[in-house]
Amino acid sequence: MKNLARVLALVLALMLVFSACSKSSGTESSSSSSSSSSSSSSSSSETKKPNYVRTTDPDTLSYAVNVEPAKLDPQANGYLAGMTITRFIYDTLIVKDSNNEFQPQLAKSWEYTDDTYTVIRFHLREDVTWHNGDKFTADDCVFTMGRCTTIANSKTMFTSVDAEACEAVDDYTFDLHLKYPCAPIMSYLATTRGMIVHRAYVESMDDDEFARKPMGTSAFVFDEWITGDRVNMHYYENYYGEKPAFTKANVRFIIESATRAIELESGGVDGIGDVAADDVARLESTDGVQVIKGFSYRFHGLTMWEEDPILSNIHVRKALAHAVDWEACVATAYKATGVVADSTLPTTVYGYESQGVYKYDPEYAKAELKEAGYDTNNRLKLVFVTQEDTQSVNTVEIAQSFWAEVGIDVEIHTHDLATASELQSNHEAVFGAFIMSPGSADGAHMWLSMWKGQSGNLQTSDPEINEWLQKGQEDVTDGRAEWYKKIQRKIHDEYKIIPVSFGVIVYAVRDYVDNFDCNPGNIPDLKYVKWKS
Questions:
Q1: pLDDT for residue 39
Q2: Are 257 and 277 in contact (CB under 8 A)?
Q3: C-alpha 28: how far from its chain's center?
Q4: In angstroms, how far is CA 114 from the centroid of its own chain?
Q5: In this structure, is the dihedral angle defined by the CA atoms of residues 456, 462, 467 and 468, taken in order, positive or negative?
């Protein structure tokens, strides 16, 4: 049975490779007209009858997400659902297209001012206004960089930025100063964390009010946030870019995956994200619905606090890694929404190198436990903490059975995301899940989150990894990938993290929807959805 599970997992992985959407290597797609062409995504079978029948208003886009964000402040928001909403409202200086090439957005052009690679000059568009009518200027960029470097959810990504030195040369020329060369900085600027905010507007209210009343420069103006239900928006008539196919948009909060799927099937929404594994096959066979898949940036792994008296012992960590058949585990828990991970960087992220899946070998795991002083008469007991994520919970429940077979009793504690993060940050939990989707598609983004201060992870500071991370960021050549590979090898060889899965992103839309952004970061840019006729 175990061999059969491995074969099935491999077949699944190969099928997904061929069905991956064409944008799966990009970060956040461009909102310029040159970058908003339709992606050749994998979709449901063409044998179904297209009906293009809609019950929603053709002048309104309605999309459902799986959680209600706590805030819509680009630098402070921590939810992918919130990022999806902010993409309607805010813009960045630059964007990445589907070929991972940088394209202009608020900036027309840019260049390094000298060969130190520590000053980037951005020449800004002069035809952009904020939704309140104010002119967009370089001063807004200076102000935004100050927020990026101080707000908790963003500062790890912008540690290289010297915010105090950043300057508005004139109204439409912005100099970004860096403390040291940072090769990934352009990728960071292209994420939702780099969205530019209006100084005067933000300073006119407190942080909590701004978080509930976003105001940007992009195609849609925020109208209202109906708690527990949706965010409503309308088209900005003075928008400088391509006009969308609709003038109204709403993003609805439908927490239960089955309810989201039913709402799509009934025509109540035009599209949904975070399609659950159990819903994929049914939606693929539903007339009027198309399912879109692609490899994502999502990584799921198991992390351990190495200063813990038990988990500091590498023999224990080896036993945990080799006691489980991870291929069978992921095939069962993730179904169509994940493949087994062979490194701590997803294949879609810059710097990836395969380290191989930890081999399932229960006898080796027992031998490692014995080295650590445990056996069937003295069983190892651990508590595992995870957030309320279906695949994460299912995975560890399956692993729990494998661990029990070799003499490891794991008690699973499930919490909401905020509580799980707090327990891990305070090291009240020492063994837990790590789920990360580095929206910049750069390896340094993943490592900064793991090793340099983002709340909610268990990694013990490692001087060597920190050194390689710094060198990798400062290397402006393609050689920086080698630093990222060294980090992956060290993590693998020392069993610092047990890789579980790489995510497969699954969206579903009505069949009249065209030009859907199959975004691997699960942050689709929905402004450029079009309608088939």
A1: 36
A2: no
A3: 10
A4: 33
A5: negative
Structure token pair of residue 64: 């459902």
Non-local CB neighbours of 495 within 8 Å, separated by 6+ positions? 314, 317, 318, 320, 321
Q: Show the beta-strand stretches assigned E in 147-208.
A: 167-170, 173-177
- Mind giving me the DSSP string for 333-375? HHGGGEEE-SSSS-TTSBT-----PPP--HHHHHHHHHHTT-B
Average pLDDT of adjacent 10-residue blocks, the chain of 533 residues: 40 40 35 33 51 77 95 94 97 90 96 94 98 98 98 91 98 97 94 97 98 98 98 98 97 95 95 93 95 94 90 97 97 92 94 96 97 93 88 92 97 85 80 85 77 52 85 85 94 95 95 94 95 89
CA–CA separation, 341 vs 349, rounded Å?
Answer: 13
Rounded-to-integer distance, Cα 484 and Cα 450, Å: 13
φ/ψ (deg, to 5) at 139 = -60, -35
Secondary structure of 11-22 in HEC code, one letter for each residue: HHHHHHHHHCCC
C-alpha 266/C-alpha 36 separation (Å) is 28
Q: Which residues, including other chains, have CB under 8 Å from residue 42's CB and lie 6 or more apart? A: 18, 19, 20, 21, 291, 292, 293, 294
Q: Which residues on adjacent β-strands are paired with residue 13?
A: none
Angle value at C-alpha 122, between 119 and 123, nearest 5 degrees: 145
Confidence (pLDDT) at 212: 97
What pLDDT does residue 34 have? 32
Q: What are phi and psi of 9, to 5 degrees?
A: -65, -40
What angle do helix axes 480-493 and 463-474 make, rounded to 10 degrees? 160
Tokens of 290: 């198309």
Which residue in this structure is represented by tokens 């012992």?
Answer: 313
d(CA 165, CA 179): 9
Distances (CA, A) of 159 to 79, 145, 195: 21, 11, 16
Find the DSSP H helices in 169-289. 185-189, 199-203, 207-212, 257-265, 277-284
Range list of β-strands (E), 73-190: 94-96, 102-104, 107-112, 119-124, 167-170, 173-177
Residue 461 burial class via C-beta count within 10 angstroms: exposed 0-12, middle 13-18, buried 19 and up: exposed
Give the DSSP H/E element, type plus range, for residue 153.
helix 152-155
The residues pairing with 195 across neighbouring beta strands, listed in sequence order, are: none
Tokens 């989150």 — which residue?
A: 449
CA atoms within 13 A on the CB side of 482: 7
Coil, strand or helix at 26: coil
Q: Report angle CA 68, 92, 97 to the nearest 5 degrees.
A: 95
Beta-carbon count within 10 A of 89 CB: 24
